[in-house]
Design brief:
about 180 residues, about 15% strand, extended, SH3_Tf2-1, Tf2-1-like SH3-like domain-containing protein
């Protein structure tokens, strides 16, 4: 009967012990961030990921910088977003990063949004044709062939050396001349 009376006190002591351990780990990695009206911050739009999952370049993590227009409370801030921005204008402090440097004269535009996600920026890197890729393989030993969807061939590949012989000629030499 005495064990039953001691159980709530024991459970309470163990909960306090667990809370102190969790508090120690939280305080070890916590950074106290506060902004004032007029500070410039970077804005993280993590909930606005680009629609295309097949991006070859990393997407920007932060947009801006934007000036803090109002401090709602310790953890909520209202930045001066561009006109016609289709976002909620109050952000948690975890989505803001302090801007260091000379502030811009006007805040930049936000990325375009389509169905709730930012539109991907088209890749502007040059794509080699099959003959150029073959020549690059012969001279450098490395080749970056353009991606062709299954069932399609480019006009350059049908008139030039077939892709299978490109692979065998490059791989048979081990990438060296």
């Amino acid at each position: 009967m005495a064990d039953r009376d001691d159980m709530p006190a024991d459970a309470h002591a163990r909960l306090e012990q667990a809370q102190s351990v969790y508090k120690r780990f939280y305080d070890k990695h916590h950074r106290d961030v506060r902004f004032a009206v007029g500070d410039w911050v970077w804005l993280r739009l993590r909930h606005r990921a680009p629609a295309s999952a097949r991006r070859r370049q990393p997407r920007p993590r932060f947009y801006g910088p934007y000036r803090i227009a109002e401090v709602i409370n310790e953890v909520a801030y209202r930045p001066e977003l561009p006109p016609r921005a289709r976002l909620h204008d109050v952000f948690h402090v975890g989505l803001l990063n302090r801007f260091v440097g000379s502030p811009p004269s006007a805040p930049p535009a936000l990325p375009s949004v389509h169905h709730g996600a930012t539109r991907p920026v088209p890749n502007k890197s040059p794509v080699l044709d099959w003959p150029e890729a073959f020549a690059k393989c012969l001279f450098t030993g490395r080749v970056n062939l353009p991606h062709q969807p299954h069932g399609r061939t480019s006009t350059a590949s049908s008139s030039a050396t077939p892709p299978s012989s490109l692979r065998t000629s490059c791989s048979s030499r081990g990438g060296e001349m």
